[in-house]
Design brief:
The chain is 36% helix and 15% strand. The protein is α/β, with parallel strands linked by helices. The chain has one domain: TIM Barrel, CATH 3.20.20.80. The structure holds beta-D-glucopyranose. The site of beta-D-glucopyranose has 10 residues, from loops.
């Protein structure tokens, strides 16, 4: 297979995010983010364990802050023409209100360098690193987040005028689910109340910021990215099929259907009725957003079954480890048809909005041996997934592009530095960059 089979105008890119790659957590006036704090947090009042595996801290990641030109050159050397990255809100507004000129200057340099080397910048406004001062006021559980975000987005869009492609949020279901329900991501909050408030505000934020950016410049393209996972039942027994239905609703539909005008699927799970107390009369209209593109981020398949011991939902995930040996370093199942099913499912909504895969890739525990990283498994993953993508396109799915995750090895949130997703290997001690075999594969594929 060759990239040319996807058509001349197909968008090929690679992606990163600020908190995962920049390091420089306190450099040049940057404020503290919820992830800076979470990296120092212990699991509980009486626990000696840290929230992040091996006590890893994002300040020692890939130093994109210093090496961004090298990284963009590497992206270009593979043949990609598009680069997706995010802005650290706490670099722009360290205290949530006051502009930090050095933060503006940094992203201006990154964007200008992209333009100089003819790489199109695709910028995500929020990839999970809220300024800590705003979390102290409730973060995503406070409806005022809509105003805080509007200020931040206005500053970005008016200062970074060379950016034509914007994304509002990165995977709201993940930062809300992991950060405000399970407490395994920053800010470590738990429970249904936090979850519902944060979810509703995140969903509202997409439309609010979309309209704001369009009012500043209607020419700009504004999308947002969503995590989608192909969900299956362990077998065809009714109660397991129902469990998978609920899991799909919570993982995929809850954070997507309101945006395309279908509202919350409240009738289908009783507990969702609780959202009503956070919804204002005008919200239904504001949730619906005619995005310019839908960013799809998908990695694996998840399998569910009925579980009478789960008090509220009665569902249980069947870990991939118990089902297969085809695993990534995240213990996620390698199941290429999942990307096809996801594309077909979103296509079936018939939104008329073009789709772009804004993340797909796999983690390995790559080792540098004699100057090389032989990541054959990753090459096989990309090939197999791209074949499935092609199959969906052939069947009429309006997919405009594909971004590999990730350009460089980085800080994998609560997992720390061990799972490596990059096409480029980073030696975290010396910060030396080495193109992996998968990077060489992309070079041939995109030629
Ligand atoms: C996130 C990335 C993350 C990747 C792999 C996505 O959910 O957007 O930040 O590194 O998945 O876990």
């Amino acid at each position: 297979m060759k990239a040319t089979e996807f058509g001349e105008s197909f968008i090929w890119g690679a992606a990163i995010s600020a908190a995962q790659t920049e390091s420089a957590a306190m450099a040049d006036g940057k404020g503290v983010s919820i992830w800076d704090e979470f990296c120092l947090a212990q699991k509980g009042l009486f626990s000696s364990k840290f929230r992040i595996k091996n006590k890893h801290h994002l300040n020692y990641s890939s130093d994109f802050y210093v090496h961004f030109k090298t990284d963009i050159d590497l992206l270009k050397s593979m043949g990609f023409k598009h680069f997706r990255f995010s802005i650290a809100w706490s670099r722009i507004l360290p205290d949530g209100e006051t502009i930090n000129p050095q933060g503006i200057a940094f992203y201006q340099s990154v964007i200008q360098y992209c333009i100089d080397v003819e790489i199109e910048p695709w910028v995500t406004l929020y990839h999970w690193d809220l300024p800590a001062v705003l979390e102290k006021k409730g973060g995503w559980t406070n409806r005022a987040i809509l105003d805080w975000f509007a200020l931040y987005a206005t500053i970005c869009v008016t200062n970074f005028t060379k950016v034509k492609q914007w994304m509002v949020l990165n995977e709201p279901s993940v930062f809300v689910g992991a950060g405000y329900f399970f407490g395994i991501h920053a800010p470590g909050k738990t429970g249904f109340n936090n979850f519902f408030k944060a979810m509703h505000h995140a969903n509202l934020c997409i439309g609010h910021i979309f309209r704001l950016i369009k009012s500043i410049n209607p020419e700009l393209k504004v999308g947002s990215t969503f995590s989608f996972t192909h969900v299956e039942s362990i077998d065809d027994q009714n109660r397991n099929v129902n469990a998978a239905f609920l899991a799909d609703l919570l993982i995929n539909r809850l954070f997507f259907e309101p945006i395309i005008g279908l509202g919350y699927p409240k009738e289908e799970i009783k507990i969702l009725k609780q959202i009503e107390k956070y919804i204002l009369p005008e919200d239904a209209l504001n949730l619906k957003t005619p995005l310019d593109f839908i960013g799809i981020q998908t990695y694996t398949r998840e399998v569910f079954k009925w579980n009478p011991l789960n008090p509220v939902l009665r569902i249980k995930q069947v870990p991939a480890k118990l089902r297969t040996t085809e695993l990534t370093a995240m213990d996620w199942e390698i199941y290429p048809p999942s990307i096809y099913h996801v594309l077909k499912k979103i296509d079936a909504y018939q939104t008329g909005i073009p789709l772009i895969i804004t993340e797909n890739g796999m983690a390995l525990n790559d080792k540098l041996v004699e100057g090389e990283i032989k990541d054959d498994k990753r090459i096989a993953y990309f090939k197999a997934h791209l074949e499935q993508v092609k199959k969906a396109i052939n069947e009429g799915v309006d997919l405009k592009g594909y971004f590999a995750w990730s350009l460089i090895d980085n800080f994998e949130w609560a997992e720390g530095y061990h799972p490596r997703f990059g096409l480029v290997h980073i030696d975290f001690a010396s910060k030396q960059r080495t193109l992996k075999q998968s990077g060489h594969w992309f070079k041939l594929f995109l030629r």
